[in-house]
Amino acid sequence: MPSKPSxxxxxxxxxxxxxxIEAGDTMVGMIQGLMRRTHGPRVIDRPGGFAGxxxxxxxxxxxxxxxKEPVLVACTDGVGTKVKLASQLGVYDxxxxxxxxxxxxxxxxxxxxxxxxxxxxxxxxxxxxxxxxIVKGVADGCRLAGCALIGGETAEMPDVYSEGDFDIAGxxxxxxxxxxxxxxxxxxxxxxxxxxxxxxxxxxxxxLVRKIVSSAGLDLNKVYTELxxxxxxxxxxxxxxxxxxxxxxxxxxxxxxxKVVSGMAHITGGGLPGNVCRALPNDLDAVLDSSKxxxxxxxxxxxxxxxxxxxxxxNVFNMGxxxxxxxxxSFANSVMKHLTRLREDPILIGEIVKGGSGVVRVE
Amino acid sequence: MPSKPSxxxxxxxxxxxxxxIEAGDTMVGMIQGLMRRTHGPRVIDRPGGFAGxxxxxxxxxxxxxxxKEPVLVACTDGVGTKVKLASQLGVYDxxxxxxxxxxxxxxxxxxxxxxxxxxxxxxxxxxxxxxxxIVKGVADGCRLAGCALIGGETAEMPDVYSEGDFDIAGxxxxxxxxxxxxxxxxxxxxxxxxxxxxxxxxxxxxxLVRKIVSSAGLDLNKVYTELxxxxxxxxxxxxxxxxxxxxxxxxxxxxxxxKVVSGMAHITGGGLPGNVCRALPNDLDAVLDSSKxxxxxxxxxxxxxxxxxxxxxxNVFNMGxxxxxxxxxSFANSVMKHLTRLREDPILIGEIVKGGSGVVRVE
Lengths: 363, 363
Hints:
2 copies of one chain form a homodimer. By secondary structure, chain A is an alpha+beta fold. Chain A folds into 2 domains: 18-180, CATH 3.30.1330.10; 184-362, Phosphoribosyl-aminoimidazole Synthetase, Chain A, domain 2 (Alpha-Beta Complex), CATH 3.90.650.10. Chain A is 32% helix and 23% strand. Chain A is built from 11 helices and 12 strands. The first copy, chain A, has helices at residues 21-36, 82-89, 95-108, 128-145, 206-215, 233-238, 245-254, 271-276, 297-306, 310-316, 332-341; strands at residues 43-44, 52-55, 70-78, 113-123, 148-156, 166-177, 192-197, 261-266, 284-288, 321-327, 347-354, 360-362. In chain A, strands 8-10-7-11-9-12 form a 6-stranded mixed beta sheet. In chain A, strands 3-6-4-5 form a 4-stranded mixed beta sheet, with helices on one face. In chain A, strands 1-2 form a two-stranded antiparallel ribbon. In chain A, helix 1 (21-36) packs parallel to helix 4 (128-145) and helix 3 (95-108) runs parallel beside helix 4. Chain A is globular. The N and C termini of chain A lie far apart (72 Å).
């Protein structure tokens, strides 16, 4: 009798549908310590609460300053198909750093400082060890970014995600004093463009990266000497996205009166042309000189094996510059010096010119 | 020569990897109006910006009040495998409401009012029409919740999501004045429990729901009269999650001096027992009388066709009560009256008793 329901006589339970509540509870226990490590005095501890709570102002001297006109700044992002590479290689503890980086690097562009972070993790089947490794990466990223991991959601969705697959999205909230928020209308012709190096591909363009790997028959577990003397291709590709938060937040605090930084950009999907233009008024262009910086070998490697045209590379990848500041020329040296003290390697990569329509030329 | 890379001679482009940048741009254009409809005077308009900006305080009389000790409250959630049902039925414009509901209903439990929302949408292939329908649901949910949709991310991930599949996660941020935050340690024996009706299954337990549908051979496109006179099973199951924000926020504003609401709970995964206990101190129990409310027919329908035991139903589904308030007994009538004026149908469903360990008994 093929039409007979298969469960005849047997009561269904939630566990029958593939959702393992116990695994979820195990993981919650394992990640609580990881979350606590990211908490500062702003976080209000509420075990079992429905939401995460973070103090903004405080009446006592606990914080350096209170806000007069606080503006909340919020971002969300994922890491694209970098998750696919992570699960393929069984390396789970770094995509969380990428996820934090993608969100907080967007946030600091507005002049804000990150306060808190939440993650959404969706998996095929919850392995508490794997889930905890992923959240450990998120917590590591939060510590690098100086923000508190105050909540998250782990969803077990066996019918949406294939075996071994997962996805992660992050959400960051920060604050900026309204009159210190970056205002791109202040960018002027003559301003200089300072770039901060990326650590590699970061977290954009991984569908193309994976296409190159498969179509050129590359081996993720092999060491290609043209790429790196010790790391495998997979390791090079999984290098976590750099987090620019501490350097940028501290730099902006240095200039409390003068507004020397007129614009910033986080170089994500769309590359330098697609992101620097977001920091420009319509009547100004940016001219960048790519001979000023050394592109990490991973980009030449991908370009060669994918036979990708240079213009396409520039429009998809960061090509070695992960973050850009637009600065008044008379303060360029001062900003470069501060950034160097903050352990960055700032490079003067171009300038702002009068022009057409917010175009970015990379020469 | 099977070992020869298949792309020999042909340069790869980003589009070759299955990512359609144009579809993304089309969708961004389509959703901008939807987002604007949710914006109030707090939102700072920054087209093309890297992050969403929302004013918290303001120097003028634009807002009813400024905060003395503002505490930020943040939540994240998805809608589980309700997304699978939505894509199966081709109904895309309501899961966004569910996504907002799951987040903001958690947030108001802390006494907070929602300010802003961001969504993360991941798809196999971006169909701008489908993507826009999903975000329309998110925007509708934000309007119902009284919060601004200030950002989001749409990720096209052909290798993680199967054809037609997608996932959605939401992030909500709100604010509560510290001394008005709900403090569950204030719950006392003798407090009464008021329930607000759910609209049905809401957004939990859908892996089990779908398992029942498949194993009992149910037809999602059929009208089952025991369930509803007109709606199909699929329509009944996709009914959006109720959003309790406006009623709860307004209710709490009514009592500016006395703290008549001692605890609240959003009834999600774990049902009444698993969520009401989160609002209880360890030495108190809640006793709920299920004869006080009428469970929507969908629960009896699912229980029958899945041959599910009553205890399992209670631990997975809300059984008709989507939100719970714990209230001082002398204010029960006043709270019920206010909630009725706010177009809710509050039901007295139980009370708090001295007891073991934060247990919830449903009798």
